[in-house]
Design brief:
mainly beta, 8-stranded antiparallel β-barrel
Length: 287
């Protein structure tokens, strides 16, 4: 009698274990993804009878907005040599923009010059995973480098060339003093005649995708990192600052103290490296 009960219990336990194993195998099978189906013959520009690529670029980065043009020449099914140029802003890393609540005017404290960059980038573009990603989403990587030119012109009308914007100390009617600007900020179109050019280097590395089912017209979106390097540096922020201001006397404003013991007061060094993440959208096509 005892043996019969043990046998029934053993059979029941075996059945439960078997059922659990079967359920586990079925669940594991359901979790497994189907294998990726490779495209046997992915489209390429050369297979479609085109090899030249062109586009108009809209650029967004930490420097602001930029515009550019690019050209590419395919030297293989998935590889092209590229050239890109355009115009972008250049900003010092310490810049901060403030806007007046009452007037709406914007001011960047301690800014000395505005700067624009003109990149000239020679690069290589290579499509990746062509057999695993559909032809209407052509994923690629791109690297480029080359010379760059920067154009700088005065942000502040520094009439005495002392390296900072002059303020004067004025006696307030109720006592105390306040600072009033003695040199004004140039508007965007003022000061170009005093501009200077600087030559340096630039480069970028990015990943992107060409969108579209045909090569005749395509939209491209890219994410990457872009940089400028100028060996001599660009003096975008004020290189000097006053040691203080003389007290106003007899109704005359107090002037800035430019030097002590014949020496100026250093403030912002020139900046050599300007780097930023970057997004670029291109409208173009191929022929």
């Amino acid at each position: 009698m005892m043996d019969s009960k043990l046998l029934k219990a053993g059979i029941t336990l075996f059945f439960l274990i078997s059922l659990t194993m079967v359920a586990a195998n079925e669940a594991q099978a359901q979790l497994e993804e189907p294998p990726v189906v490779k495209a046997p013959n992915p489209q390429t520009p050369l297979s479609e009878g085109v090899s030249n690529e062109y586009g108009l670029d809209l650029i967004v980065n930490n420097f602001g907005f930029g515009l550019g043009v690019h050209y590419g020449r395919y030297i293989g099914p998935f590889t092209a040599i590229t050239f890109r140029s355009g115009i972008t802003g250049i900003r010092d890393a310490s810049e901060q923009t403030f806007q007046s609540f009452f007037t709406g005017n914007k001011i960047i404290p301690n800014k000395y010059k505005r700067a624009f960059g003109f990149p000239f980038l020679f690069g290589i573009k290579h499509r990746i995973f062509p057999e695993k990603i559909a032809d209407n989403f052509r994923l690629f990587v791109n690297v480029g480098a080359g010379p760059a030119m920067a154009f700088t012109y005065p942000y502040v009308q520094d009439g005495n060339n002392n390296g900072f914007r002059d303020f004067v100390a004025i006696q307030a009617p109720g006592g105390g003093t306040f600072l009033s600007p003695a040199e004004r900020v140039n508007d965007f179109f003022t000061g170009w005649k005093k501009g200077e050019t600087h030559w340096g280097l630039n480069g970028e590395i990015k990943i992107g995708a060409d969108l579209g089912s045909t090569f005749a017209g395509q939209t491209t979106i890219e994410f990457g990192y872009f940089f400028y390097y100028f060996k001599q540096g660009l003096q975008i922020m004020e290189p000097y600052k006053p040691y203080g201001y003389r007290a106003p006397q007899n109704g005359f404003p107090g002037t800035p103290i430019e030097k002590k013991d014949g020496e100026r007061n250093p403030f912002n060094p020139s900046q050599k490296y300007f780097g930023t993440p970057q997004i670029k959208i291109t409208i173009g096509g191929m022929w």
